[in-house]
Amino acid sequence: MNLITGLMADATNIATIFLMVAGLYVVIARGNMVKKLVGLSLFQSSVYLLYLLPGKILGGSAPILDPKLTVYANPLPHVLILTAIVVGIGTLALGLTLVVRIKEAYGTFEEDEIIARDGAKAGEQGDVA
Amino acid sequence: MMDPAFAEQAITLVILLLLAAVTVGIVRVRGLFAAVVLLGAYSFLMATLFVVLDAVDVAMTEASVGAGISTVLFLGALYLTDTKEATGKARELAPLAVAAITAAVLIWGMSDLPEFGSADQPIHAKGADYLARSLPDTGIPNVVTSVLASYRGFDTLGETTVVFTAGIGVLVLLRRRSGQGKS
């Protein structure tokens, strides 16, 4: 039991950082734009976790007041993260709409193909001028 | 009878391990459909973890918005575009280095954070004591609701503004698309 308690002190933080960094890696390493947005969602969710972990008190309960209970989790991180989740879905919807538009305009949603096409177009215009 | 504090720690650890496994799956899988479905599983696990962390309102929102609506949005986008992902060349080293450096800096920065689950942290001692004020001030037993709607009502107004703006953006982008389709 002591082993788990000792491990917990660092394990929650390290696991949260792992989830976060995995999301960051997907955003940078994958050229596909939908995959990038999946990575961004991973990153976002792990930030929610980072905010909620310190609010927890072991043996406490959810911040809904009741005469039978005395120890509650801190409600402020919960409120902030509720706002963050709703704003996150707004940005995700906008990002996905942009991906749909890019796919229709370019015929692809792979980052390097789009850059290659833009480069080719700029080269043609340079030749004409 | 198991000590509830120990049980909470054990469950948190198990769910974190499951989350890590799903994350590895998302990073490694090729094909967008699988990635999106795995992201839905990730959100549900995250919602379960939020219940263990006593954030029941956040858990409900994460399960409905994170696992529900965002999965539907992703699937809609895949329907309008393509589910295939280019298998392309490896661009592994630089992103891995950036991720590793970020992880190292974060671990260094978080090394002196208070211990998980202890009651004597500044977050519980300092700041506005909403838990004591909520019932006399507003009469609402759910403190998250009273903070969201009363004490931080302007935050929520700003949030709705952001969502409204995003909705307008989505509508404008999609309307241009259908207009071009007709002409």
TrEMBL record, chain A:
<dbReference type="InterPro" id="IPR050601">
    <property type="entry name" value="CPA3_antiporter_subunitC"/>
</dbReference>
<keyword id="KW-0472">Membrane</keyword>
<protein>
    <submittedName>
        <fullName>Multicomponent Na+:H+ antiporter subunit C</fullName>
    </submittedName>
</protein>
<keyword id="KW-0812">Transmembrane</keyword>
<keyword id="KW-1003">Cell membrane</keyword>
<comment type="similarity">
    <text>Belongs to the CPA3 antiporters (TC 2.A.63) subunit C family.</text>
</comment>
<feature type="transmembrane region" description="Helical">
    <location>
        <begin position="40"/>
        <end position="59"/>
    </location>
</feature>
<dbReference type="InterPro" id="IPR039428">
    <property type="entry name" value="NUOK/Mnh_C1-like"/>
</dbReference>
<dbReference type="Pfam" id="PF00420">
    <property type="entry name" value="Oxidored_q2"/>
</dbReference>
<feature type="transmembrane region" description="Helical">
    <location>
        <begin position="79"/>
        <end position="100"/>
    </location>
</feature>
<feature type="transmembrane region" description="Helical">
    <location>
        <begin position="6"/>
        <end position="28"/>
    </location>
</feature>
<keyword id="KW-1133">Transmembrane helix</keyword>
From TrEMBL, chain B:
<dbReference type="Pfam" id="PF13244">
    <property type="entry name" value="MbhD"/>
</dbReference>
<feature type="domain" description="MrpA C-terminal/MbhD">
    <location>
        <begin position="17"/>
        <end position="81"/>
    </location>
</feature>
<dbReference type="InterPro" id="IPR025383">
    <property type="entry name" value="MrpA_C/MbhD"/>
</dbReference>
<feature type="transmembrane region" description="Helical">
    <location>
        <begin position="59"/>
        <end position="81"/>
    </location>
</feature>
<dbReference type="Pfam" id="PF20501">
    <property type="entry name" value="MbhE"/>
</dbReference>
<feature type="transmembrane region" description="Helical">
    <location>
        <begin position="6"/>
        <end position="27"/>
    </location>
</feature>
<keyword id="KW-0813">Transport</keyword>
<keyword id="KW-1133">Transmembrane helix</keyword>
<feature type="transmembrane region" description="Helical">
    <location>
        <begin position="32"/>
        <end position="53"/>
    </location>
</feature>
<protein>
    <submittedName>
        <fullName>Multicomponent Na+:H+ antiporter subunit B</fullName>
    </submittedName>
</protein>
<keyword id="KW-0812">Transmembrane</keyword>
<feature type="domain" description="MrpA C-terminal/MbhE">
    <location>
        <begin position="127"/>
        <end position="176"/>
    </location>
</feature>
<feature type="transmembrane region" description="Helical">
    <location>
        <begin position="93"/>
        <end position="111"/>
    </location>
</feature>
<keyword id="KW-1003">Cell membrane</keyword>
<dbReference type="InterPro" id="IPR050616">
    <property type="entry name" value="CPA3_Na-H_Antiporter_A"/>
</dbReference>
<dbReference type="InterPro" id="IPR042106">
    <property type="entry name" value="Nuo/plastoQ_OxRdtase_6_NuoJ"/>
</dbReference>
<keyword id="KW-0472">Membrane</keyword>
<dbReference type="InterPro" id="IPR046806">
    <property type="entry name" value="MrpA_C/MbhE"/>
</dbReference>
<feature type="transmembrane region" description="Helical">
    <location>
        <begin position="156"/>
        <end position="174"/>
    </location>
</feature>
